[in-house]
Amino acid sequence: MLYIRLLAAAMSLAAPLSFAAVTQAEASWDRSAWEQQVAAERDINELGRLYLELTLEQSPHNSVFRGLHGTAAEPTRYDDRMADASPVARASFDSARETLLAKLEGIGASALSRSDQIDLHILKKRVELHLFNSRELGSGASPFTWSSALSTGLSSLLMRDFAPLDQRLSSLGKRCAATGDYLGGVKASLAPDDVLPTEQHKKTALAQLGGLDRDGGLFDKTIPDLLASSSLSDDQQRQILEDCSDAREQIKAFTAWYQATVMPREASEWRTGKAIYDRQFDLQNDYYLTPDELLARAEQALEDNNRELEALARRIHDAYLVEEIEAGTYAPAAEQSDQAVVRNVFAKLSEDRPTPDSLVEDSYALADGIIAFVKDNDLMDLPPATKLRIEPVPPQLSGNSVAFIQTAPAFEPHLESVWFWDIELLRSAPDYLKEYNRTMLAIVYIHEGVPGHFVQLEYSNRAERLIPKVFFNGPMVEGWASYITTQLVAEGYTVYPNHPLGHELQQMTDIKMVLRALTNAIIDLKLNRTDWPEEEALALMIERGYQQPGEAQGKLGRAKMGAVQLSSYYAGFLAIEDILAEYRAKKGDAFSYKEFNERLVGAGSPPFFAIREFMLEDE
């Protein structure tokens, strides 16, 4: 799973971009001056830079994830600010987007280079998507939008050493001082009686607000501890503590208002419906198959992979469980159903699993074997894994995904990537960690870290072109991590190299992960586009995807949080497999995975029509 600021572009290895050199924003953002620059600008890349400026002015809490902290005039402008969450501000930014979109639609693509044509396409889609989210999906009326921005704004400055600690703490103090005004804007957005968020958004936002106020968390431990280790003067420390203490009280007061005012309201329908979903799918995935075509491919692949998993489990069941069969715990495979045979194997595999307290250490322990396998099999050149840090997610960011990564920002590629495990979420349901046995832990390391998201980002951050680097394609990002995981296992990787059935056990877990991507897509497509019952979605994940009930319930919760993203794993995996088949046919005997893999991630993360062109063009 990726909450990444990842991306991409061409093969050239350019120096990192400096935003100070690409924005003309002065001390206070002047929309009129910005629109004049848009009107005068002819270069697609520069229009992309102007849009990036707009997004940071509206959402300064994303500064750390972009690696852009301010402007030439104000180097910490974004780090020092919280967003204006009021309806008036949202309407103004939407209007500015309309201005840019009109400019983009007036550009004649035929006169552009192919690279600029692709960049124009990406930029138009992204501006349209942001307008769609605001106006059709009502993102401004979702408390989760604002609780996430608040959590991110108050925690992100402390999660990476992108600047001296004193500077980051000073910026945090300014964000704390601005929290009251920010929450005032949120109240204005949520106060109208006709604002009816979904139940899942209401509950998740409340949990995030609670995470911010948690004992032993950001306000009463992290901030005081960091201030004590800083070089700030006593007066500066005292002011930051006062501002952040006030912010905490503002959050408590807002939470009480929210519980009394918003939580009791009737919840709106979380299903988007077919028309809205299909429009969002087009804007967000920019994909070569329709939702109906993707669903048909996913349902057929689910059948195929289930048959493969069942056959593999039958082949190894009696040998792997010989002691259990002799003890009478399990009957031989011939006496059991296909699903029972599969579940028996997974039940024994789940016995070798980490505890919540050992999860981070156990994840690190997998690194050497995976890296060595990639190198020994010449699958691709790797960046140093020392740039990848693994740690528990901060409490205020907990509750939405078991594992995710925040990769090094596109504009600060020298920084570390951080892979987070949500330890508290895993503790919350006893069967959660059964899902993350040793073989699955290796799969997650490959997917999130090496050679998955982390490696893709390191390649992508070398790219020159700004637009695909910043406004990335979700299916390409998730598809790479899913594809490369399956490739490693197909080439022979296993976490149990000395076990006689080690590779078969790893294969079973990989197929289970493929089934997870398939069920993700199916539940996303069917829940949102039809009235398919939630109970059937859970049954599909548990019975056909072999997920633990806790994992399945968590995924259902994610499906209710928003449409389309869950379809991106299989969509990307399928697209890469389709391109791989064409690429292999073209190369014939000259084909090598190393060349394919490095070319693929070197292409960055534009939509798949551009990826396919790049991969299959003559070199």
Apparent shape: globular
Number of helices: 27
SSE sequence, one letter per element: HHHHHHHHHHHHHHHHEEEHHHHHHHHHHH
How far the N terminus sits from the C terminus, by CA atoms, comes to: 33 Å
How many DSSP-defined strands?
Answer: 3
> Largest sheet at a glance?
3 strands, mixed
**Rg over C-alpha atoms, rounded to the nearest angstrom:** 25 Å
Mean pLDDT: 92
Work out the strand percent. under 5%
Class from secondary-structure proportions? mainly alpha
Poorly predicted runs of 5 or more residues: 2-27
Q: Enumerate the strands of the largest sheet in spatial order, edge to edge or round the barrel.
A: 1-3-2
Measured as a percent range, the helix fraction is: 55-70%
InterPro entries: DUF885
Protein name: DUF885 domain-containing protein
Keywords: Signal
Pfam families: DUF885
